[in-house]
Amino acid sequence: MEMDFHFYSACCFLIIFSKVSTAIDTLSPSELLTDGMTLVSRNGNFELGFFTPGSSENRYLGIWYKNIPMQTVVWVANRRNPINNSTGMLKIESSGKILIQVQNKTVVWSTNSTARVQNPILQLLDSGNLVAKDGKDSNPENYIWQSFDYPSDTMLPEMKIGIDLRTGFHRRLTAWKNWDDPSPSDLTYGIELKGNPQLVLRKGLEKYFRSGLWNGNGFSEAPNYRSNPIFDYDFIWNESEVYYIFFLKNKSVMSRLVLNQTQSERQRYAWSPETQTWKLFAFQPDGNCNKYGLCGPNGNCADEVPACQCLTGFRPKWFERWNSSDWSDGCIHSKPLNCQSGDGFIRIGKVKTPDSANSWVNKTINLKECRAKCLRNCSCMAFTNLFVTKGVSGCVMWFDDLLDIKHQSDGQDLYIRVSASEAAERKKKAKVKLAIILATVIVALLGFLLLVYHLRRSRRKLKDEVEDNNLNDGEDKDENEDMDVAVFEFGTIAQATDSFSFMNKLGQGGFGPVYKGTLANGQEIAVKRLSKSSGQGPKEFKNEVKLIAKLQHRNLVRLLGCCIHGDERMLVYEYMPNRSLDKFIFDETRCTVLTWSKRFRIICGVARGLLYLHQDSRLRIIHRDLKTSNVLLDSEMNPKISDFGMARTFGGDQIEANTNRVVGTYGYMAPEYAIDGLFSAKSDVFSFGILLLEITSGRKNRGFYHSNQSGNLIEHAWRLWKKGKLLDLADEFLVETGDLSKLLRCMHISLLCIQLYPEERPSMASVVLMLGSDNELPLPKELGSLFHKKPFEANSSSGNDESSSRNEISSSLLEAR
Ligand SMILES: *[C@@H]1O[C@H](CO)[C@@H](O)[C@H](O)[C@H]1NC(C)=O
Ligand SMILES: *[C@@H]1O[C@H](CO)[C@@H](O)[C@H](O)[C@H]1NC(C)=O
Ligand SMILES: *[C@@H]1O[C@H](CO)[C@@H](O)[C@H](O)[C@H]1NC(C)=O
Ligand SMILES: *[C@@H]1O[C@H](CO)[C@@H](O)[C@H](O)[C@H]1NC(C)=O
Ligand SMILES: *[C@@H]1O[C@H](CO)[C@@H](O)[C@H](O)[C@H]1NC(C)=O
Ligand SMILES: *[C@@H]1O[C@H](CO)[C@@H](O)[C@H](O)[C@H]1NC(C)=O
Ligand SMILES: *[C@@H]1O[C@H](CO)[C@@H](O)[C@H](O)[C@H]1NC(C)=O
Ligand SMILES: *[C@@H]1O[C@H](CO)[C@@H](O)[C@H](O)[C@H]1NC(C)=O
Ligand SMILES: *[C@@H]1O[C@H](CO)[C@@H](O)[C@H](O)[C@H]1NC(C)=O
Ligand SMILES: *[C@@H]1O[C@H](CO)[C@@H](O)[C@H](O)[C@H]1NC(C)=O
């Protein structure tokens, strides 16, 4: 009897359990979702159903996170039309229309998309997106309707906030009225199109916060967000659309951006599994200076006391009020303008550029033309260059008062209109300052450290006020201002490296040997002693170093400075204690240090670093020599790409897309580059593919031998792929201990990257997405025949490099057979 009972309850438990675990994520026209029932997305991330917010008694249809204890609603359907009992139900009609009815008749909410499909279904996706689509459509992304198009107060990863410029359709966030009432309040956040598009947080008509200009890499609002561990973001602006979007760097982290009505803030939260709470990660407006227009017209805000100052060339409109910290009236020109007889401009460095509501944008004019245009139009008060994504530089002009400017260490330059006499005066002052600095320099020669210190300080001061007379183009800066990169004395370097002693030699990279050094202050450095044949003058070289030093990303090795000694050139980098990736993955014992999860992190890091070089940096660099020995590892095994910008620096004529001098390393070179000398970002994608293959297999592409198979690693990989046995190629250690599906996914991606034709390879942007998601991957095309082409004749004078290129140029991809 008792046995029976146990058996029975066990059965019951099983039944209930299996019911729970087979929760459905779709609804078809023949089904109803009544109050109390829910849809659950496939991986159990999100749940859709009726809920009651706070202490309200109303029922709403909404979506919330499924697997956290705190109910966190991210979307509400009938936010304007609550249901006051539990007779609500959701359905999708065979026309594809979605509606919520009460009591089986009154419609309280419905979609009105006119698109019709054969087999409409409603599905809750793991992204938190509720979509209506044709259940039998082979393209899973042909939505006829999606909740991501109608955001409530929450922005989830992969959701767009912005405007479809073809239809004028807006997607913006609107806060809940309060904790109990999801109906729309007056706090909104979206992109505004006047002049240069920017994100604006508004309460009613009043602006609370705005993002500032998109500078191709980030908003001037948010300086260091790129390197945050949680999310990455993008801003797209082309003929068809303008939007802001963010992606999770780690899919298992939960992060959302939400409008908070009571605080009138835009807040970003991340879920903390340890404390089981949402952690406030960032919020805006944060700090005085992000409050819209705090300093009034033509004021400049800084995080100091008092917060507001007039822009250079301006004075408070009312001194008394200004002196008592009432800044709302702002500032006026201290000397009246005289447009007809000619005004001038002063450059203000490092600011968040003014509100673009009364601005004008042209994506094709350069800075010089921009200045001329602004000078001609008497109501133009300021101009600067606009960084359109992908390194294109344009022009922005502002009319009338300049609003909401703040000082920001990584902000942009702004050129503001002042009277001719004011401009002349500034110039004189700047010259005097320069003279003072020179004097200081002479005096300070006595103490080297003191000198460096002084220079930096005075440079920073100068930057705000020096008039810029020789505008050439967007990247023109004057000499005094931008030496963020140190020029080391030869003696310092020689001492640090013990006169380049053999003991300190770290290795022989492309372009020359590398030495470890320790500066007098204890800092460890790596010094690359460049081979002598670059033929670059010291000035050219310094300029190039400055440009390269501006490329900063957590996955790039930081260039600290350079050293010039006679005709010798040296580059000084931060030192990476764990040396390079090849020292681990190809080493029988050390390979176990890099577990699969570490390797995956390395892969993602390298991909992001490369993406930055290709797309996000202002220079758009193609690396051209990506390989395991160029991926360095810091003390925490974070990957950092080295040797970037070298081809640019030493290539000269190689900036062109076709070159007769090939740099790079065989085995990693894309066929079109190795054979025809053609390169593009896609050639780097190829090298990345090889890198990926090597990291996952633990074998070198060059020098790969298989006992009874002929061919190189690539051919071997392709053979195994065709047999559906790609995993056989993977490092056994990884197969035993790693996440097999991810491992296989990475190998799959590597095959996509090493396609013969560059246009068939994904961009690094897609690679980063593929690595970060679980979406289905396209199938790679046949790889077989490509590497049978004859290698090109070795007329290459790769010149600078002994070990990595020239010796290997005579060998080839085929050599390994
Ligand atoms: C339930 O509420 C809806 C509106 O919220 C109303 O139209 C309907 O009559 C109510 N039904 C009952 C049984 O109270
Ligand atoms: C629910 O709302 C309907 C009208 O929408 C109203 O007639 C009814 O009295 C309400 N019921 C309750 C319990 O508030
Ligand atoms: C709703 O009405 C339809 C027909 O009008 C009926 O078949 C169905 O059973 C009703 N559903 C509920 C839950 O009352
Ligand atoms: C539905 O159609 C109306 C009128 O055409 C339009 O104003 C409204 O924005 C549409 N609503 C949705 C949710 O598409
Ligand atoms: C605009 O950018 C989006 C996203 O990169 C892209 O899908 C779309 O094709 C672009 N449209 C145009 C007209 O370039
Ligand atoms: C992703 O986040 C989870 C949970 O915070 C963590 O356990 C995991 O190690 C992270 N994965 C990566 C690749 O960083
Ligand atoms: C709004 O922000 C405050 C302060 O950060 C927080 O305590 C509160 O819970 C937030 N409200 C909502 C609805 O998230
Ligand atoms: C305001 O402060 C400035 C500088 O501190 C001073 O020169 C000026 O006289 C003050 N004006 C008034 C009206 O207090
Ligand atoms: C930008 O300026 C160029 C050159 O003056 C002009 O041809 C083009 O039409 C302008 N574009 C816009 C959008 O005004
Ligand atoms: C100056 O620019 C503004 C805004 O584009 C324009 O409305 C005005 O006509 C221009 N004035 C002149 C003199 O070009």
TrEMBL record:
It catalyses: L-seryl-[protein] + ATP = O-phospho-L-seryl-[protein] + ADP + H(+); L-threonyl-[protein] + ATP = O-phospho-L-threonyl-[protein] + ADP + H(+). Residues 339-419 form the Apple domain. It is a single-pass type I membrane protein. Residues 500-777 form the Protein kinase domain. InterPro entries: Bulb-type_lectin_dom, Bulb-type_lectin_dom_sf, Kinase-like_dom_sf, Pan_app, Prot_kinase_dom, S_locus_glycoprot_dom, Ser-Thr/Tyr_kinase_cat_dom, Ser/Thr_kinase_AS. Residues 793-817 have a biased composition (Low complexity). Keywords: ATP-binding, Cell membrane, Disulfide bond, Glycoprotein, Kinase, Membrane, Nucleotide-binding, Serine/threonine-protein kinase, Signal, Transferase, Transmembrane, Transmembrane helix. Its EC number is 2.7.11.1. Pfam families: B_lectin (PF01453), PAN_2 (PF08276), PK_Tyr_Ser-Thr (PF07714), S_locus_glycop (PF00954). Residues 24-145 form the Bulb-type lectin domain. GO terms for cellular component: plasma membrane. It is an enzyme of class 2 (transferase). The chain crosses the membrane at residues 434-453. Residues 1-23 form the signal peptide. Residues 792-817 are annotated as: Disordered. It is found in: Cell membrane. GO terms for molecular function: ATP binding; carbohydrate binding; protein serine kinase activity; protein serine/threonine kinase activity. Its main location: membrane. Belongs to the protein kinase superfamily. Ser/Thr protein kinase family. This is Receptor-like serine/threonine-protein kinase.
